[in-house]
Structure to design on (143 residues):
């Protein structure tokens, strides 16, 4: 299989994207609720069953200087839990500026008439697509 799922982990939402290793492309698909640092596992299980990814990619939030921060621990913990639950490789990717890039993509799509203001609720999923594309463009090497 050549499918990967990407995740942008936040304190309230996890953005999710799906990517294709052959085309090195990704697209935003949904957001998943996060409550008390615990994701909606039923929703994640459904996505895994639907897409059957062979790799999972989690954005690692670092400071501008490249140091870890509190959010980094949340992302690492989520990545560990994904690996334990699904038994597939889980890669961590530097997500610095992914939210800004996602917002720029959204603004460009709005200007082109492809998105509406109400679509902004999916910015976390778009950030996950940015993260996943970064990994895909690295040649899907380990991180």
């Amino acid at each position: 299989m050549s499918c990967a799922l990407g995740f942008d982990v936040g304190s309230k939402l996890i953005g999710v994207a799906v990517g294709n290793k052959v085309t090195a492309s990704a697209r935003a698909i949904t957001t998943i609720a996060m409550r008390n640092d615990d994701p909606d596992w039923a929703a994640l299980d459904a996505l895994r069953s639907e897409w059957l990814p062979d790799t999972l990619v989690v954005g690692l939030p670092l400071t501008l200087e490249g140091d870890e921060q509190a959010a980094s621990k949340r992302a690492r913990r989520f990545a560990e839990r994904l690996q334990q639950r699904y038994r597939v490789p889980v890669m961590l990717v530097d997500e610095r500026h992914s939210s800004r890039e996602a917002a720029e993509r959204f603004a460009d799509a709005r200007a082109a008439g492809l998105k509406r203001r109400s679509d902004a609720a999916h910015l976390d999923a778009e950030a996950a697509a940015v993260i996943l594309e970064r990994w895909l463009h690295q040649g899907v090497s380990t991180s």
